[in-house]
Write a structure and sequence with these properties.
116 residues; alpha+beta; 3-stranded mixed beta sheet
Length: 116
């Protein structure tokens, strides 16, 4: 099922604004290494899953805790800057794409070495 243009535009807007809020307004040092990778918004705009990663993989749990603590503050700031009828609830989730790609790459290397 593909996303509609509307949900994609809302997701891109939210990603931009949340990144700006984190960079300029949040003082929690746990979230300063965060990289927002993508946002997936439900069709009815009631929920936005905010996927994040970090260059420092060992701090992902601390980043998630910091983001969850800052959730209501981020929503409040979004209400001030974004003009949407309905602002989605934010759920912060780790983006494991890079980790999964690394595991798949290792499997391919193992298969390649076993063939030789």
């Amino acid at each position: 099922m593909s996303d509609s243009i509307r949900t994609l535009r809302v997701a891109e807007l939210l990603k931009h604004e949340i990144a700006k809020i984190i960079a300029t307004n949040i003082k929690d040092p746990r979230v300063h290494d965060v990289v927002l990778t993508r946002i997936k918004v439900s069709k009815d705009l009631s929920l936005a899953r905010v996927y994040f990663s970090s260059y420092n993989q060992s701090s992902l749990l601390d980043i998630q805790i910091g983001l969850e603590k800052s959730n209501s503050f981020i929503r409040k700031k979004l209400m001030e800057t974004v003009s949407l009828k309905k602002l989605p609830q934010l759920v912060f989730e780790r983006d494991d794409t890079a980790e999964n790609a690394s595991k798949i790459d290792e499997l391919f290397k193992q298969i390649s070495s076993e063939k030789e």
